[in-house]
Amino acid sequence: MEQLQPLLYAGEFHYYASYILDYYFFVGQPEAAEPVIRFFREHPNQDIDSFLPVQRSVWYWLRQDWGISLATETYQPVREHGGYIGRPEQEMALALHVSSLQSAYRHWLINETLHLDEAKKVAADHHFAVPDAIWERYAAAPW
Length: 143
What we know:
Elements: H1 6-11, H2 13-26, H3 34-42, H4 48-60, H5 64-81, H6 89-111, H7 117-125, H8 132-140
Helix pairs in contact: 2-3, 2-4, 4-5, 5-6, 6-7
C-alpha cells in the first residue's frame, strides 16, 4: 500500500497503524514500528479510534518504555481536545498510574520500603480521585 498508493497510505496511515505495529512486533522487528509511535506522538488527535488500539498493542507487546512515553506525551493534547465520547485520555492516564504503582512495588522489592508519593502525584496529575483508604490499603498490604 505504501509503495503502490503512497497518497492514500499517507492520508489513512492512522487506520493501518495498529496492523503495522502488530506485524512488526510479531516478526521481531519492533524498531520498524517506530514510525507508528512517532505518528501518534505528533498527531494524537488524528483518529482516537485508531490511536487507542496502538496504545494497547504497545502494552501487549511489552514495550512499556514506548507506552509510558507515548501516554505521557499525548495525554494532555487528547485531554484538551475534549470532543471525545468516553474520555480516552483515561486509558493513557491509567497506563501511567499503573506504571507508577509498579515502580513503587519494584522499589519495595529492592529496599523493602514502600514509597507511594510518586504514585500519588501521578494519580493527582492525571485527575484520578483515589480515596485515602485505597492508599492506606496499599501501604498495609503484605507485599
